[in-house]
Amino acid sequence: MTINDGERKRWSNIKTCKTKSIARERKSIMKFAKELQSQMVPEWRTAYMDYDSLKSILEAIETKRKTTRTPIQRKHTIYRNFSGLTRKLSSRSVLSEMESQIPDKEFRQVDEEVKFVAPVDDLGELEVEFFKKLDDEVNKVVKFYKAKVEDVMNEANMINKQMEAFIAFRIKVHDPPSNFDEGLEMARLASEVANVSHISVSSPSRNSGTSVIDVIKEEESYHEVSSPFEDDKEGVKNEPEIEDIDKSKGQAKGKINVRHAALDILDQVKLNNPPDTPRSTFIRILKGPAQNDLKFNRYSLKKIELQLKEAFVEFHYKLRLLKSFSYLNMLAFSKITKKYDKISTRSLSASYMKMVDNTYLDSSELNKLVERVEDVYSKHFAKSNRKKARNVLRPKARRERHRVTFIMGFLFGCAISLIVALILLLRAYNIWDNEHSPKYMDNVFPLYSLFGYLVLHLIMFAGNIYFWRRYRVNYSFIFGFKEGNEIGYIQVLFVCFAIMALALSTILANLDMERDPVTKDYNVLTELLPLGLLVLLLLVLFCPINIFYRSSRFFFITCLFHCICAPLYKVVLADFFLADQFTSQVQALRSLEFYICYYGWGDFRIRENNCRESKVFNTFLFIVAIIPYWIRFLQCLRRMSEGKKAREGANALKYLSTIVAVSFRTANTLNQSFAWNLAAWITSGIATIFVMYWDIVIDWGLFQKNSKNKWLRDELVIPHKSVYYVASVLNLLLRFAWMQTVLKFELPFMHRQLMLAVIAALEIIRRGIWNFFRLENEHLNNVGNFRAFKSVPLPFQYEDDELKDE
Asked: Do residues 294 and 114 make contact, with C-beta atoms less than 8 angstroms apart?
């Protein structure tokens, strides 16, 4: 029997369509796997459904079915009971359904979880493995989600109590008892106060009469209590209705008692005054009484309101993350079960997902809670403007604008062109062999090297941000950036290349080696260009106008102020991270000192200075060099006093040893003698060993002997282990850059100032490498503890809560 061309073509088309369908399906699966990875909360990644492992099992099942000519026959009843489709899933595994259908030897009870022990004869081994893994993933996800929802419920209860005190405080401030018309307002309060003491917070459950929506019933009563003191949507204050007011003396007295009962809550609370400000720190040091008494004024009310706003924003963010967690896992379970249906030619995903829908993982009640939180915020903090409230509670991510990328690229091109022009001018005019060249290197080059250090540091930081994003290190959460305002590597490079282009332009303008033959002076205007550029950058940094990334600039200024005022402020990661950056910019700080000396006491018109001969200047060489290390030393002492951690004390000793080493190296540079050189060798060697151990073992978390990754750590974000070994060796080598100062190593073709600049640049590069792995380790610590939220201090503290803490 022969097959004609038409028949052959039809079978070919069928085969092609089938191949394309399989390819589309595989592409869809791969696309969802990447989407799941990109949208999951980085700190919770181990709590999400393990989609890749389930997908790999299904791929093995599909491969086995293709290699087997006859499909494996299975008993439908056993399959249904095994997959848990006949009973609503609780905290037990869905495999518990098989207990009544198969011999007891196949299962056993371990810690309230049904564990599959041996495969069922009538099922394929891979399918048994798939459903066992699927059941474990359901249990894992539901258990984690339930624990997080319970934490949210506890926090909702705390916020309820905070709002209760806040409303009473606001009533007290806006309408003190002496000016309050009891007869008009008490009728409004009487019907609402009763609800305040009957608020119940419960977990979402389909079998109970309560839901998570009960959490904010108290806020419903707050709307009415606080409305006389807030403008309505039309901007007119709500007036109390007086038709239903009972004017009898007995009921009026009862209304007064109701108001007093509403304000009695203030007798049970006091202000939280954590030691995070200079004033509170001094009080703590002097062991004076904490200023926790309530002061009923508008300033205190404004401060409390700001704290509660921040608490609401963070609480709303937690709810949104939980919603996303629920949605992504539900979608993942749906995708993987549909994939199983296509491989096994069954239609069981709908039944399985119906069972999953009835678990604790359903987020419908959480959606309602999110809406109510927005409603409460709009009524109390946004004058009933829901759109304004949503903009605050749901900040939009920073949009990547193409014009920023275009301008960044244009500035980069300008910088490259200026570098080429500078090299050509140096060669054309043979400036290196010019008789005025040493004077230029001693007086002008240190001024411009400051901008070189800054540009290099920004380039390294932009690279850090790029790789943090690529490997999903949540740097914005670790640093505490405001959601939607975190700066990206494109923005950092834009600032970097703008500074680079301006600095190179001023260098070309100031590359004048000829003096006026009469006055023997250089052009005053060009000699002031470095100072003008420095002043311009400082003006932009402190500019209050909303230009050039104001939120990021103010964040930097705040952290800088906390560093300067150490240890008066509570130390967070962003503060000591910035102080660590300054420890690698000692030469830049000395350049700032040179600016003051050169333009203040030198004669910049003839490019001469006597700074090196000044005792004041040499004294400040010591002071400026140890300031960053001294700040870190004080920060470590502050953290040690708060956390009582011995590690912080050891860290303080590390910076103290570095201060001693830097001081002896500076003294050896200024006073050439064997004694100073020997002291510099000894102190620098001890400090280097100390800091190298701290970098690798403590800051990076590497060099763990029993790690599954040899001499590294168990969790790594970079798949290539060699990167960690290379980074460790580079950090070790670059730590010995200080040896140049004690060995007096110099190259004949390189000026001393240029050699110092190269050594400083190597230290900046080392710091850039350190930055990535330091934040990677911090991120992995957050992942290990599932820390995805920052803690927001609440304004009020209840007496009963204080007793519980004690």
From this structure: no
**Cβ partners under 8 Å of residue 678, min gap 6:** none
Tell me if the bond preceding 567 is cis, omega within 30° of 0.
Answer: yes
287 dihedral zone (left: phi>0; alpha: psi -120 to 50; beta): left
Q: What are the structure tokens assigned to 369, written together?
A: 């809670």
Which residues, at least 6 apart from 323, have a Cβ–Cβ distance to it below 8 Å?
363, 366, 367, 370
For residue 565, how many C-alpha atoms fall within 13 Å in the half-sphere facing its CB? 16
CB-hemisphere CA count at 13 Å for 530? 24
Question: Is residue 199 within 8 Å of 357, Cβ to Cβ?
Answer: no
> Is there a contact between 633 and 656 (Cβ–Cβ < 8 Å)?
yes
Contacts of 650 (CB under 8 A, 6+ apart): none
Q: Are strands 269-271 and 796-798 parallel, antiparallel or unpaired?
A: antiparallel
Q: Which two tokens stand for residue 276?
A: 């995070």
pLDDT grade for 387, boundaries at 50, 70 and 90: confident
For residues 116 and 403, give the distance between their C-alpha atoms in angstroms, rounded to a whole number: 58
- The CA-based diameter of the chain, rounded to the nearest angstrom, is 112
The Cα 59–Cα 383 span in angstroms is: 56
For the cut 50, the answer to whether the pLDDT of residue 206 exceeds it is no
Cβ proximity of 729 and 803 under 8 Å: no
Q: Which of 490, 502, 511, 509 is nearest to 451 (CA)?
A: 502
Distance CA 175, CA 662 (A): 61
pLDDT score at 791: 80
Q: What are phi and psi of 281, to 5 degrees?
A: -70, -45
pTM: 0.79
Range 780-785 contact pairs with CB under 8 angstroms and sequence separation of 24 or more: 780/701, 780/713, 780/715, 780/717, 781/701, 782/43, 782/474, 782/477, 782/478, 783/42, 783/43, 783/44, 783/45, 783/46, 783/715, 784/715
Q: Which of 246, 229, 245, 235 is nearest to 179 (CA)?
A: 229
Distance CA 192, CA 262 (A): 10
CB atoms within 10 A of CB 274: 11
Inter-helix orientation angle 51-67/5-39, to 10°: 160
Chain centre distance of CA 647: 23
Residue 683: its H or E element: helix 674-693
What are 50-82's pLDDT values in tens digits? 888 888 888 888 887 777 654 444 444 333 433
| Dihedral pair phi/psi, residue 114, rounded to 5° | -80, 120
Task: With beta carbons less than 8 A apart as the criterion, state whether 661 and 687 touch.
Answer: yes
pLDDT tens track for 286-324: 665 555 567 778 888 888 899 899 999 999 999 999 998
